[in-house]
Amino acid sequence: MSTSTLPALPVVPETDPSRASLDSFRIAIAKRLTETLPLSLEQAFSGVDYGKKGEDFTVAIPRFRLPGKVDEIAAKVKEGFQPDEWIESIVLDKSFLHFRVNTANMISEVLNQVDYLTHSSPSGKPEYGSNELGRGKKLVIEYSSPNIAKSFHVGHLRSTIIGAFLANLYKACGWDVVSLNYLGDWGTQFGLIATGFEKYGSQEELQKDAIKHLFDVYVKVNKDAEGNAEVKVEAAKWFKRMEDGDDDALKNWRVWRELSVKKYEEEYDRLNVKFDVYTGESKVSKESMDKAQKQLEEMGLVSESQGARVVDLEKYKLGTPIIRKKDGTSIYLTRDIGAAIERYEEYKFDKMIYVVSSQQDLHLAQFFKILELMGFTWAKKLLHINYGLVQGMSTRKGTVVFLDQIIKEAGFVMHEQMQKNEDKYAAVEDPEKTSLEIGITGVKIQDMAAKRINNYTFNWDRMKSFEGDTGPYLQYAHVRLASIGRKNPHLLPLPPASQIATDTLAQYPHARDIAFLLGTYPDVVKVALKTHEPSGVVTFAFRLAHAISSAWDTVVVKGEEDLEKARAKMYLYECAREVLAAAMRLLSIRPLERM
Q1: Which of 23, 389, 429, 574 could form a disulfide with 455 if both were Cys (CB 3.0 to 4.6 A apart)?
Q2: Among this protein's residues, is 156 annotated catalytic?
Q3: What is the DSSP code (8-state) at residue 330?
Q4: Per the residue annotation, which of 98, 156, 263, 569 is the catalytic one?
Q5: Which of these is catalytic: 76, 119, 138, 150?
Q6: Phi, psi of 277 (to 5 degrees)
Q7: Considering the entire predicted model, what is its pTM?
Q8: Strands 57-60 vs 48-50: parallel, antiparallel or unpaired
Q9: What's its catalytic activity (predicted)?
Q10: 532 flagged as catalytic
């Protein structure tokens, strides 16, 4: 449903003014261009870009490649212009035209749309910023994917944070999303753990923290194996029994896997991340892998190299990956191929994303290429979203080994920071929980602030700072907005949108800036869907937080005697809070009400 009160405009494909009110203003500008220049509405619309340095929208005339002098063509658009309900002014700047939209109408259109799509949306959930681009399409996304019994390193953390963002993003764009956690729950290390468990295992420790205990057993038995070759032989035999489906050999493994998943689920929940399916290397059937290898052999794509089976991808500059080891056991490339085939059969996806570090670029390129050579048309629907490395994430006690160490450290560092302000600390309801949430926000924002591919050095001091573009600063901005209502209870609940005098906001340049920024949020989401970069959403959230912070001294609610004006300002800040919260939720962050 449209919340607009302005006259109807022509329709432009792939725009949706009922979800992005600035689309209407861009269409109005495009219409103005078509009235004076030989352009179709769609051509004109594609030339209306967001302006820089305080301009709303800018049109670069040269891009249309029209015959004649550029400045004369531009002047023609401005000739005889009369301000209307959409456009306030046109400024001629050499070959550029800057359009300023009607302030009062823009503010009311944007705020009413934010309010309606947040509180009265068809789904009953906040929907501002979302769109229908992916309606009817299915995405399968694999991310996080740690190894059971090995350390959860920082690369897994990046995959978790970026993957959770992408899953939220695709859902916000109308896709049906299946989130998979593909656990490293299979392989010779389980043979080692099984032999080690008889010697070092403890049921009690296992129940307490399966992830840590299995890791400890693994470390100890590895040490034994270094001094005694027999240990590895035993382990290999044990794993062979598992591969052959020997129930005795699988009994313990099943318990270990289940307890590890349970522990991981708790930790992911603290990170505000949820998986639909915990799958894993163990779930890929031997049939799929054998069938895939047989198909590759029949197609003449496999050759032998030192007893192992390899696929020659040299002509694609992708090397010669091994698909089966000398001893006949599978390796993870074969398993990835089998898993992809099974997933397509199960989900019939329109796209499948793997969120894996850039160190694996070659492996994924080989794997995608092999599927393509096998003749699977859906191989083109696979996408590798990669990311750079993190340095410097160690805790006070040394290197990080487990996810819960990162989570605990983030909470501890933040808790210590909060205790420095005694009065504020005393006012926080649940300081432990609050400091954990702010700490996790700090870790996530530091991770998502720059382009994915960049390596970065993690810095605990930066993470806990409330100054500058940090996670705590974002939470603080949201909490401050949430407190306006608590400090001005006489204004709440606000009357319906149609009864709020938003035109009184037009006199405040800061209110205009905030409203315009709120209006850009649906486009921020669309751009993120194209680039798969969380950094654009992070940048938006900080720009909004800064715009709000600049407005505090001029757009003042407390002490405003004119009730109409006070309500309009309150409405502006409420809408700003809703959009800041939406951007934070998209980034998998839980917005706090108090801190």
Answers
A1: 389
A2: yes
A3: B
A4: 156
A5: 150
A6: -140, 130
A7: 0.95
A8: antiparallel
A9: tRNA(Arg) + L-arginine + ATP = L-arginyl-tRNA(Arg) + AMP + diphosphate
A10: no
